[in-house]
Design brief:
Radius of gyration: 21 Å
Strand order of the largest sheet: 1-28-27-26
Helix content: 10-25%
Shape: globular
Oligomer: single chain
Largest sheet: 4 strands, antiparallel
Mean pLDDT: 93
Number of strands: 28
Distance between the termini: 42 Å
Structural class: mainly beta
């Protein structure tokens, strides 16, 4: 028995050493580009900032960065209006002139990010509150604006829920599409958007918007300027996977379909959309051939057109995901594990084939968003959101970080590298 016990202890020690090695090695592969204690903004003047603070339009501790998107020199950073006092919801940082604590510049302007007061009419390019954005290969920025301010407070619906699209070459609004009343329910909540488009056919784009509150996906067709709501059992949360422990905060969520990512075009021209509820450890998929066909997508008998890819394993709940076509790898945040994982769909999805490529118990607390850019870098934003929502962040320590990593280096010698 003594020999068995010693052998067991040695095995445990080896595993612990491997975990420690993984944590330090994977963080070393990441380049910390930005790190803030509190978010600041590029105000037009000191007076403008002082007036905003006095009026309550800017409460520094209420501004939490959440979503990412990169286009050339611009790194977009969203700040949802969880609480009152958010200065601007859609912002960017110029990478060429940035330092680690660079202020955020509202996009496309301060006016577009300023809530209307009294009877003031909202501007067409108004962005009230957005969680995530998507840059497409046609040099457009797609924004899902919830139109909802002070979400954790009074919850005021300032403007309709809308898809807002900007031309990144001119910084001008191209289109604003208000979702139809049939696209959402009272409990709907839209916190993500992905875009499906061939750069040679920009006018044939589709957008897919998960509804984590009402367990559906809204499909939008650019050409038809129309949208439809898709329902499926796989969009619902797993009641056994809604318990989270992140950064010392225990909480329970019932968020349904959340992370969406598009694989490369198949021989038939359609892609595979990988998706998962946030409160779940399973990954699912469906062909965009189903989603793009309004009749087929809304057919109540389409159940078997959706596929279960597998179970990622215990404690692998994920918020955002993104796909790198060249390596054929799907990246997923790992909320309960303070990190980011990857999976190559050429292999069955299970805990053995899910590789944890980044982990740090301090720097990667709540990896809220990830994005693959045109140069095949993976951008990661961590923001301690559970502490922000349920407790109080310490303004004397770094709370928000953005990292960048070369994808090939990140997946080297892992189960994702085929």
């Amino acid at each position: 028995m003594q020999n068995q016990s010693e052998g067991f202890s040695v095995t445990i020690m080896i595993k612990l050493l491997l975990l420690l090695t993984l944590s330090s090695a994977t963080l070393a592969a990441l380049d910390e580009v930005f790190a803030w204690k509190e978010i600041s903004f590029a105000w037009p003047s000191d007076e403008a900032k002082e007036n905003a603070v006095k009026s309550g339009d800017y409460v520094p501790e209420n501004n939490l960065p959440l979503g990412l998107g990169r286009w050339k020199d611009k790194l977009f950073v969203t700040v949802p209006r969880w609480k009152s006092g958010v200065a601007a919801s859609l912002n960017y940082i110029s990478l060429s002139s940035a330092n680690k604590t660079s202020p955020l510049t509202p996009y496309p302007s301060w006016k577009a990010n300023t809530l209307p007061k009294g009877e003031e009419k909202p501007s067409d390019d108004l962005i009230v509150s957005t969680f995530r954005v998507k840059v497409d290969p046609c040099d457009r920025l797609w924004v899902m604006d919830t139109g909802l301010a002070d979400i954790f407070g009074e919850g005021k619906q300032v403007s309709p829920q809308a898809i807002v699209v900007f031309d990144l070459k001119t910084d001008k609004l191209i289109r604003r599409y208000n979702l139809k009343h049939t696209d959402f329910k009272e409990e709907s909540f839209f916190a993500n958007i992905v875009v499906d488009v061939d750069p040679e056919k920009c006018d044939e784009a589709f957008a897919y918007i998960p509804d984590l509150g009402a367990y559906s996906v809204v499909v939008y067709s650019w050409a038809a300027n129309d949208s439809w709501r898709v329902k499926h059992n796989f969009f619902h949360f797993d009641p056994l996977k809604g318990d989270f422990n992140v950064g010392g905060v225990n909480f329970q969520w019932t968020d349904g379909v959340f992370g969406l990512a598009l694989g490369p075009p198949q021989d038939n021209g359609f892609r595979t959309m990988y998706f998962h509820p946030l409160a779940s450890t399973r990954e699912f998929s469906v062909s965009t051939q189903v989603l793009k066909n309004k009749t087929l997508a809304t057919d109540p008998h389409n159940y078997y057109m959706f596929k279960i890819e597998g179970n990622r394993g215990d404690q692998t709940q994920a918020s955002a995901s993104d796909f790198d076509e060249k390596s054929n790898v799907l990246f997923l945040t790992q909320l309960n594990r303070d990190g980011v994982a990857c999976w190559n769909p050429k292999k069955p999805l299970n805990s053995m084939n899910l590789a944890l490529v980044a982990q740090d118990k301090e720097a990667l607390i709540f990896t809220n968003d990830i994005k693959v850019d045109a140069e095949r870098n993976l951008w990661i934003l961590s923001d301690r959101m559970p502490t922000f929502l349920y407790r109080k962040l310490d303004p004397s320590q770094i709370n928000y970080r953005i990292f960048k990593a070369n994808i090939d280096e990140l997946i080297k010698n892992t189960a994702c590298s085929v």
